[in-house]
Each structure stands twice: as C-alpha cells, then as structure tokens.
Amino acid sequence: MEERPYHSVRLAKELCKGCTNCLKHCPTEAIRVRGGRARILDSLCIDCGECIRVCDYHAKVAVTDPLSMIKNFKYAIALPAPSLYGQFRGLQKPEYVVEALRCIGFDDVFEVARGADVVTRAIREKLKQPGLPKPLISSACPAVVRLIQVRFPELIENIVDIRQPMEVAATIARSEFCREHGCAPEEVGCFFITPCPAKMTVIHRPIGQKKSDVDGAISILELYGLLLPYVEKMVSDPNFRPATKYGVAWSTSDGEANAVCPGNSLSVDGIDNVIRVLEEVENNKLMDLTYFEGNACMGGCVGGPLTFENNYVAKNTIRQMVKQMPEVHPDKDVPASMLNKYPTKNDEEIEERDAIRLDDNLQEAMRKMVRMNEIIERLPGYDCGSCGSPTCRTFAEDIVRGYCNEMDCIHIMRDKLKVMAQEMVELAQTKRE
To answer: Are 133 and 38 contained in the same domain?
Structure first.
C-alpha cells in the first residue's frame, strides 16, 4: 500500500462543522466537504496554511515538532527564522533572541538570516549567467514552489536552483559545530524555528534536494512564551557576529528581492496575489522582469500562520531593527569561497506534481473529460460551494470520479423539486377530472 504524502496541515475532524469557509479560500482547490466534514486532498495541498487562518472552528491545524524533540540528539542547534525577531516588540538586536534560545535548552544557535546572506550571494552569482529564463523565480517559499508544481508547471524552469536559506543554514551550522566540538554529524540535531507549516512539510518532503539537512521544525507559537522572559532581560554580547541587515530583512516581503536584485525585481505577498502575478508570468507579460519574489503569507514570513505577533507590527519591528544594523551587503560579507565550501545548489530537479487524474487509462480519462464538460454545461456556474466542491468545474470532476452526483447541487435539486411538484399538481388534477 502506497504511503500517503506528508503534510503539516491536518484536519481535526471532530471540530469541523462543514461550513465551507476553508473550501472557498484554498488556492489550489484542495478541500472538499463531504458528509458534513471537510476533506483535504493530499495531491493538491501545498501547506500554505490559508485554511488554518480562515477556520473559525480551529479544525485545521499545523503539526510541528515539540521542543522535547531536541533531546533525541546529543547536541541541538536552533535555526531561528529571522521572522522570529519580529515577534518581540521593540527588539533592538537579534542577539537577544539568539541568547534566549540557548537559555531554553539549545546548545548552539545559527541564524537562518546568515543562511539568507549566503543564498543572496549565490543567487546574485547565478544572475550573472547568460540565457536565464525571465523572470527568475525565488525558491525560498516552499508553498509558492509547490503552487507552481501544482498550478503552473510550465514555470518550474524559472525557479532558481538555489537551496532555501533554512537548508544552507543547517548545513553550515552542523559542519561548524562538529569542527569546533569534535563530534560526529549524527550527534547533532538542527531545528528550524518556523513561522509556517510549509517549512515543516518541506523538511519531510524536500524540494530540489534528496534529503533535508534540517532534523525538525518547532513552531514560533510554541517557543514565544518560553523566550519572552529571557529576551526582556538580555544584554549585548560584544562577541556576537550577526547576519547582515539584508539577511534579517528576508523575513519581510521585498526583503529578498531588495537583497538579490533591487534594480529589476518584483515582490508579491499573499497567496492570491502571487497567483495573479504568476498568471501574468505564465502569459509572458513580465519577461522584462529579472527576479520575482513570491510570499504565500501577507507581509512575508512575518505573516506566517504559526507566528504570534500581528504581521504589520512584526514587519515594523524588523524594519526598525535593520535600520540600526551596519550597511554591509552579503556580496562583501560572504566570501566567494563559502559558495564552494558548502552546497548551495539543488541536487534534484523540481518536477511537476501530479494532480488528481480523471483516470489512469488515457482512453477512459478522455471519456470522463467529455462527460465532465457535458455536466459543466448543465451546472449553474455560481461556484457557490454548497455542493461541497469549491467550483462548478471541480464539482463536475468529482462527479465523474464517483465522489458525488448532480443532485448534490442545491440549484439542480431545487429545479428538480419544482418539476416534481408541478408534476404532482398535474397528476392530482388529472385524478379529480
């Protein structure tokens, strides 16, 4: 039996009321409501977390690793996403959060912002190559990459073949820690402090890599309360070597684009907005653009569903903090030798993800396609979701797959009942005559 693909976003069936709110907001139409309960289709879900945001009943949850998982390793390294800094209002320096992570049990901390610095340098080197597709698309947001795999497969070749900052940070952190402490790599666990479920999923199902260098992901929500008391009383460490302001700014929308290609790039946040721009790219309307940064969450990673602070407040905290940081670009901070010393490029091709097929047999699939189009012609086209499918088109697909029938459409049912009622009236009149 084939194992189901891993997803961080899960459904708590006992809490679901079948309201269809999540169904209407899913960007890949991965949710159905059947029997009064939602169902998430594995093949279409990109773990963006939109259903978590909009579910009033908290029936959609993100499964992440508990802090206790660090005990599975002799040594544990925290990899804080720079969006973690934005959770603490008025934070002056990243080092306060770094030291606080050590206080709650981590043996070492390596900023993912430093990984972003290395990735920035790698992408800027990549952009010097001739003949690149335009625009080159960021690979940093796994939800956006999976969106492209599902809905825009022809744009896969546009995705930059550079690893995510989280992965680069993990590789460097483990290597440096083992060299300094004389321990074996398998003794060291690297844990990403994540603002979103998509990062958790990509650790279990890597994109562009055979295996993730990250051992687990712990939610920012889980750690915020533990870190706060320590952050508030921390003092500066003169020996701390922070990431650049550009690496820290990757946590907010346009931070990556500003670091990588400030002259001719576009940054878009919010999954619906990203979809609209990708449609423009797909139709060759943005070929004069060099680089595209897409963020599934509003505001960038600071707006992830597993964050504590309001995304606008968090973004402002990051903005104020980077103003006080030295003006050093990753081009100068990251030596070229670093790109050769550690792997920064993907070791696997990114492939199209198979959506739900009408049928494995091509001839049968064609027959079902014809039937599906016939059904669509009979449907009202309201895309109301009352049938339990997000649109009339997906409803027709579900019918030909045998998941439901046309009478599940309340509009068709209503018209049918009207006809039946009229027939009964006519029958009654005939009997009286």
So the answer is: no
Q: Are residues 50 and 73 in the same domain?
A: no
Q: How far apart are the first and last CA of the chain?
A: 64
Q: Are residues 281 and 204 both part of a single domain?
A: yes
The pLDDT tens digits for 169-202 are 999 999 999 999 999 999 999 999 999 999 999 9
E-assigned strand segments in 234-342: 265-269, 291-295
Residue 282 sits at the vertex; the CA angle it makes with 279 and 287, to the nearest 5 degrees, is 110
> Is position 350 within any domain?
no
- Which residue range(s) make up the domain with 394? 364-433
Asked whether residue 53 falls in the same domain as residue 71, the answer is no
User: What DSSP character marks residue 112?
Assistant: H
217 pairs with which residues across the strands?
192
Residue 309 and residue 97 in contact, taking contact as beta carbons nearer than 8 Å:
no
For helices 142-151 and 197-204, angle between their N-to-C axes, nearest 10 degrees: 70
* CA separation, residue 130 to residues 125, 252, 290, 411 (Å): 11, 29, 12, 55
Q: Which of 315, 64, 329, 104 is nearest to 199 (CA)?
A: 64
This prediction has a pTM of 0.91
The tens digit of pLDDT for each residue in 273-286 reads: 999 999 999 999 99
Cα–Cα distance for residue pair 68/272, rounded to 1 Å: 36
Q: Are residues 153 and 24 in the same domain?
A: no
Count Cβ atoms below 10 Å from residue 360 Cβ, excluding itself. 7
Pick from 269, 227, 174: nearest CA to 67: 227
Same domain? For 287 and 406 the reply is: no
